[in-house]
Amino acid sequence: MAVDYTTHDGIAVITLNNPPVNGLGLSTRMGIVEGIDRAQHDPAVKAIVLTGAGKAFSGGADITEFNTPKAFQEPTLATVIKAVEGSAKPVVAAIHSVAMGGGLELALGAHYRVAAPGAQIALPEVKLGILPGAGGTQRLPRALGLEAALNMIVSGTPVMSEKLAGTPMFDQMVEGNLLEDALAFARKVGAQSGPHPKIRDRNIGHPNAAGFIQFARNSVAGVAKQYPAPHKCIDAIEAGVLKGFDHGVKVERECFLALVQTPESKALRHAFFGERAASKIPDVPSDTPARNIDKVGVIGAGTMGGGIAMNFVNAGLPVTLLEMKQDALERGLATIRKNYEATVKKGKLTMEALEQRMSLITPTLTYEALGDADLIIEAVYEELGVKEQVFTRLDEVAKPGAILASNTSTLDLNKIAAFTKRPQDVVGMHFFSPANVMKLLEVVRGKDTAKDVLATVMQVAKKIRKTAVVSGVCDGFIGNRMVEQYVRQALFMLEEGALPAQVDKAIEKFGFAMGPFRMSDLAGNDIGWAIRKRRYQEEPHMRYSKIADRLCEAGRFGQKTGGGWYDYKAGDRNAYPSKPIDEMIVAHSKELGIERRKISDDEIVERLVFALVNEGAKILEEGIASKASDIDMVYLTGYGFPLWRGGPMLYADSVGLYNVERAIRRYAAQPNGDAWQIAAGIVERAAQGRGFNS
Ligand code: 3HC
């Protein structure tokens, strides 16, 4: 049973016991109603305490039940809350740790609430693309007032319980033992005659509710363009404010049922579970003992190394930062300080905290200083010979059991591991630039990487607040291997008839943060050029449009050289279409004998996104990624794929793999079609009517 029922000297205690977060799944809901009924029938019981075991009061509705019949099976959460609110004996919710979503709605249905400090109080449904569906949009404004409640509902942001002390939300804050104090409180109210207060009976009382709601609508319109949920939250709140509680609940219900079916909500729920699933490695049990990581070493104080070091000091871990030359070391430290100063200027860090973080960095010019580090990450020049020197030295100085990590984005981790006599301790930690900002961390698993090393790195990633995704060894790992096919298609489309601005606009309209050409100008076109030069040697069969080489031969490396696919003006980061480059592209088509044609925006989007999907499917087939949601997490957190579409693999599922296959076969029959080798995983799944995530 997911609920425990006990009695304590005249008080019934109903304890939600559904780990990990007391989600309100069917059996928990049934248990609560049973407990409430049992307490009604026991004459010895004078009042009821409702609380949660373990690490939460309740994290809300069980999201895994959404889109299953269980979600709507009675008792629904609305029925449960009705039972609680309708109890003849007073119900006291004893809140600690987490009261979110349906969990908070349940507590708001109780007659009284006592809370421990430090509990996260939230209606975060909007982050899952839905709205509070069990009266939250009606009761929270009656507990906290319209403005505070609307802000909480529309943002989904948690508020600490102590901040809400003194509001009708909490009748008492508890510093000591929550259960004991809740029992004492229940005894007191149990001795009083009813009726006991119900939040639904309170007035919202706002001097200009209609005006505030209009203001909120305007604010939301600006920030939530792609998301219907925040707008619906306001609709439901407004309904209750203008026409009363019951009408508000009715509108809330209708909105909930509509939102739960939207692609945006499916995408957000996919990302929620995808993030948690990414931290689980199929053959590495969750109880694998992790190594202690108390001290970190970083080799290279350039942009990457400095950013990596910042992650660790931000999490309170001391870092020894190694450079080869004093001036490079000083430059690196100065850049780190400058980054922190910018955060201080924004008011997000105090000067004191800045100094404290800087004091956690020990600069050094000698490898020996890394001897006591538990984890050492190299961020040196991307060349195998350089990596060989670094790892040979590390093998000499690192203590036994230290984890040796490479930040390589392209090189063969197995070769790097072989430079040491301890390949089991070597792993890839591929950070994305700027490393102190970007959420994504690709954890590269070599053929010998030990399981406890992987378990440790996943734990460390959580500590430094990264979304870690495990990738097997291949060229480019998950993210860059896929993006290479995306860029190839973008370049072929230039030859066939498109111009950079059209390609970028089409994919940005689809929702990407930045199109391939603006992105390449920002990162530096020379990076792709270096990769292509290597490809021409290693994989001569892989055909590339030569147009990007022409651009680089002209010295147009992007923003840093004042021009790339676009023109740039000093002090202005806007990209201006470049007449000479557009002419160069048209001339290039002519040289190739290609008659340029109008390429539709739909074709641009399909070719770019399906190129990602096709390569993603191959990555799955080869076991480089262990699940489709891992690929989606890479693209959502590292490559600017629109969150509301859930990542390339979920997007492909929503289009239907049958349709994806047809489109790819169509493009494969066009000029440049040899770039499309359809993945068996698409064909097989399409034939079986399955998707990547089903
Ligand atoms: N339903 C089902 N599972 C849930 C869940 C929920 N509401 N909330 C968390 N979980 C699961 C996670 O998937 C994870 O499972 P795993 O161990 O198998 O991966 C486990 O609980 C622990 O979650 P976290 O790793 O996130 O643990 P933390 O301690 O870091 O955070 C938390 C706990 C703050 C509760 C966080 O999990 C969270 O924000 N959860 C979502 C809360 C939420 O959105 N609630 C609203 C649900 S919708 C709703 O209530 C509708 C209603 O209005 C009708």
Would you mind describing this structure in some detail?
This protein is of the alpha/beta class and 694 residues long. The protein has 3 domains: 258 residues, 2-enoyl-CoA Hydratase, Chain A, domain 1 (Alpha-Beta Complex), CATH 3.90.226; 176 residues, NAD(P)-binding Rossmann-like Domain (Rossmann fold), CATH 3.40.50.720; 210 residues, Orthogonal Bundle (N-(1-d-carboxylethyl)-l-norvaline Dehydrogenase, domain 2). The chain contains 27 helices and 19 strands. An 8-stranded mixed beta sheet has the order 12-11-10-13-14-15-16-17, with helices on both faces. Strands 1-2-3-4-6-9 form a 6-stranded mixed beta sheet, sandwiched between helices. A 3-stranded mixed beta sheet has the order 5-7-8, covered by helices on one side. Strand 10, helix 11 and strand 11 form a beta-alpha-beta unit. The longest helix has 21 residues. It is globular. The chain binds 3-hydroxybutanoyl-coenzyme A (3HC). 3-hydroxybutanoyl-coenzyme A binds next to strand 5 and helix 3.
